[in-house]
């Protein structure tokens, strides 16, 4: 029996290793081509590096405005992720602690429904709303950072509330009762007692939200037309057109987009996993 289990375990691990290799090979292929000359990429795209160069990264960063696109993505992703975490934590606290059962049930059902709605089905009404924002609220947001930050916050709220709510539900209410005895009100309990205890879940939600915002392409391409406001995902696509393709710059720009995300995940993957599972078991 033990030998069968060993064979089965080896088979499963072999399949998983094969899957990992197939997944990482395109990334490795793009990474090594980013250090090749354009002529070497054209003549031998699958060969190892022969004429090593970092010129593709320098040209992409300066000449192709990758630096502008990079900082645009950083600003939008950080701002949207921060407010997603803050609003999600407030909503989760209200759903787990405030005594409005029927209203909480309705809001929870709405959040779960929002998770199941495909985001692509909302693109047309979202675009129309953003273009007509000035007529409704008196100031325009189309072709501004807000045209991305606000939708990113909205789309990220549902799942973020579910994760943080599960964590908050596992916290003992005796902590809040002690805070009430010390004279704390609702906001004091939230910011001084509950929020510091939810740091693992908040960090997890921030990272997941940040990664999603950083890699998002469709809304960034739809809601921003100015080149100076493009995010890195959209700016990378501009390296290719119907007449000419700068393959070296394209691969270098891709690495600028991929490497920060990979490094962030490698160093914080334990934090992400612990945050996702911390509220799954109570007691």
Helices and strands, with pairings:
Elements: H1 2-33, H2 38-43, H3 55-62, H4 66-97, H5 101-116, H6 123-131, H7 133-137, H8 146-169, H9 174-181, H10 186-197, H11 199-215, H12 218-223, H13 232-237, H14 247-277
Helix pairs in contact: 3-14, 4-8, 4-11, 5-8, 8-11, 9-10, 11-14
Gist?
This protein is mostly helical and 283 residues long. It has helices spanning 2-33, 38-43, 55-62, 66-97, 101-116, 123-131, 133-137, 146-169, 174-181, 186-197, 199-215, 218-223, 232-237, 247-277.
Please provide a written account of the structure.
- There is one protein chain.
- Helices cover 75% and strands 0% of the residues.
- Helix 4 runs parallel beside helix 8, helix 9 crosses helix 10 and helix 11 runs antiparallel to helix 14.
- The chain is mainly α and 283 residues long.
Rg, rounded, reads 23 Å
Largest sheet report: none
Q: What is the tally of helical segments?
A: 14
| Alpha-beta classification | mainly alpha
Q: What ranges have pLDDT less than 50 throughout 5 or more consecutive residues?
A: none
Terminal-residue CA separation: 36 Å
SSE string, helix = H, strand = E? HHHHHHHHHHHHHH
β-strand amount: under 5%
- In round numbers, the mean pLDDT is 84
Q: Indicate the percent of residues in helices.
A: over 70%
Report the principal-axis shape. globular
Number of strands: 0
